[in-house]
Design a protein that fits this description.
This protein is of the alpha+beta class. 27% of the residues lie in helices and 28% in strands. The chain contains nine helices and twelve strands. α1 links the parallel β5 and β6. α1 runs parallel beside α2 and α8 packs across α9. The structure holds 4-diphosphocytidyl-2-C-methyl-D-erythritol 2-phosphate (SUD) and adenosine-5'-diphosphate. Pathway: Isoprenoid biosynthesis; isopentenyl diphosphate biosynthesis via DXP pathway; isopentenyl diphosphate from 1-deoxy-D-xylulose 5-phosphate: step 3/6.
Amino acid sequence: MVTFPNAKINLGLYVTEKRPDGFHNIESCFYPVQWTDILEIIPAQGFAFSSTGIAIPGDPATNLCAKAYHLMQKDHSLPPVHIHLHKTIPIGAGLGGGSADGAFTIKVLNSLFNLGLQTPEMEAYARPLGSDCAFFIRNEPVYCFGKGDQFEDIQVDLSQYFIVLVNPQVHVGTAEAYAGIIPKQPEYAVKETLALPIQNWKYRLSNDFETTVCAKYPVIRDIKNTLYAQGALYASMSGSGSTVYGIFEKEKDVTGIFPPNFMIWQGKLG
Ligand SMILES: C[C@@](CO)(OP(=O)(O)O)[C@H](O)COP(=O)(O)OP(=O)(O)OC[C@H]1O[C@@H](n2ccc(N)nc2=O)[C@H](O)[C@@H]1O
Ligand SMILES: Nc1ncnc2c1ncn2[C@@H]1O[C@H](COP(=O)(O)OP(=O)(O)O)[C@@H](O)[C@H]1O
């Protein structure tokens, strides 16, 4: 079975407090974006994981696809599979690509082997894999809180807009980014801001990681400024960086504006 794990962006991202378990509570809106990897899982003689495309740092045995399989294998007698991942979503990029791969592995295994798991059960498998992994089970725009793994419905529809994602090929480590933050309450609540017309977001919706991450990698600030100069209604870094997105009223082609080594995705939002 072949599926296409997709990226997410954060519409606003506030780190509100440090938790006793060492993680942080956050508030954000996760929104799916169709920059996708390709994930194929087929029954095989023995378990195997392979990947092509962008090189994934770390031991392949710790890949979130492999971890998801072994986590589910503990509770269900899954036959061995070969998992192949073709990676196109940039890594360490604030797009949650690894988490999407883990979550989609859970969904594919559920379908392939008729496990009959419902959404909350699949979310429970996803949570230990990564804080934003559970989001990719439902994979719909959602207000999130807690570690980023608790959800409430939110009415945000960006389907009329065009989005541009620009990644400068800078890898930002998530733990390192959290370590640079002093938690605080947001000045404006995410839900209230997102209920306003998008033209207001520039003044009320922000990402707490931007200050410290942009201080270390000024190219991220430059991309955001360029997207606004190109007419973006709203632009922000996603997650803990390094990708910046711009939301435009109409279709916009930014190829040629940024250096050729930058990775760019442009398209409509769902
Ligand atoms: C920052 C966010 C915002 O959406 O996105 P990305 O930049 O990764 O896309 C997420 O919170 C990233 O979630 P995820 O990438 O799943 O992180 P995890 O693997 O769970 O955690 C990596 C490390 O980040 C820190 N961490 C993560 C989540 C959280 N709520 N508090 C934390 O302090 C911890 O130090 C943890 O060891
Ligand atoms: N399938 C995967 N794709 C990408 N990274 C993965 C994957 N599995 C494990 N990882 C690990 O997760 C780290 C980054 O995860 P990723 O979700 O891409 O970051 P971000 O959320 O910042 O975009 C990498 O350093 C890598 O070691």
